[in-house]
Please model this.
Amino acid sequence: MPIQENVPLAPLTTLKVGGPARYFLEANTVGDVREAIEYANQRNLPLCVLGGGSNVLVSDTGWPGLVLKIAIMGINHEGHSPVRFEAGAGEDWDQFVELTVKHNCAGLECLSGIPGSVGGTPVQNVGAYGQEVSQTIDSVQVLDAKTGKEEELFNDDCQFKYRASIFSTTQRGRYIITRVNYLLTHGREPTIAYAELKNYFASRPAPTLAETRQAVLQIRASKAMLITPGDEDSRSAGSFFKNPLLSREQQEQLHQRAAARGLQIPSYPALDAQGKVSAAWLVQHSGFPKGYRNGAVGISRKHALAIVNRGGAKAADIVALKDQIQKRVQETWGIRLDPEPVMVGF
Model:
C-alpha cells in the first residue's frame, strides 16, 4: 500500500486552493481503506476522506495527518422497476447519472452536471432542481473506522436532512463510504419541479429523461456550475451557502425588513414549500452582486452563491470573504447563512 508524503491537495479540489497532505493514499479497494485506517491509528494521525474535491475547502496549512482519497470503482444494476444501481464511491457522479438516464431510469436526472464522486452524495444529501439523493438512496455500504467492520446503512439509518446526514453531523468521521445503492424507476417521467426547468420546457411537449438531463446541463453551464477549464467563474465549490430554513416569525421579520428597503422577497414554490428563502437573494441584497471582486477572490459573474478563486487565491482569502458575507447578511437581514463546503484543516 503506497503511502505518499507531502502531496498537494489544491489540484484535487475544484477551488484549487489549500496546502498539502502530510500523508496521502488513494484507496482502490475496501482492503486499502481498512489498511489506511490501521496506518493512521498506529501513528495517531488524523484521517481525512477525500472524494471528488468539489464540496471542500482545504486550509492553507493543509492536512497534518493522512488524506484518504476514495477511488473504489464499479457499477452494477439489476431489476426492472425499481432498478437497483450499485456504484463504487469513487465513480464520477455525472458519468453515473448519465448511465442511469441512458437506461431510462428516473430519479437522478435533475442532479446532472454536479461535480464530485458518488461517495460524496450521501454525505451532504446532494440535491438540485427538485431532487435529492435521499429520495433514491436505498442503502450505503460503509467501513466503520472505529471497528474496522463493513456495514450496510439503510436510508433511515442515514438520517437525511436538507444538505446533511449522519455522515456530516452526528457520525462525522466514523463511517467511510465505499459503495452506494440507489433505487430508480424505469420509464418514469422526469421531475420538472423547479421554475427554471418549467420555463425551459414551457413550449415543448413532455420531455424525456435525456432531454431533461441536457436542459439541466445547459442551465448549470449558464451559471458556470459546470467545471470548465479556463473559466474562473467555475473555479468554485459550487453553492457556498445553504438556503436558510426560517421560522414563521423569521419570515415575517424578513418581509418587514425588505419592505422597509422597498424590496420584495422573491417567491419560489420549491423553497416556499419548505419554509426556506433564497440565500442568493440575501447575498445579492447585502452588497455582494454577481461579479463582485476583492483581490484574488469574488462572486461568480453567473451565480450569486459561488465564491470563486479568480487566480492565485489562498484559502484564507476564501474564508475572509465568507466571513464578510455572513456578517453583512446577519446585519442586514438578521439571518445567519451556513456554508455548504466541508472545511478541512481549519
Observations:
- The chain has nine helices and 17 strands.
- The chain has a mean pLDDT of 93.
- The domain at 232-344 is CATH 3.90.78.10 (Uridine Diphospho-n-acetylenolpyruvylglucosamine Reductase; domain 1).
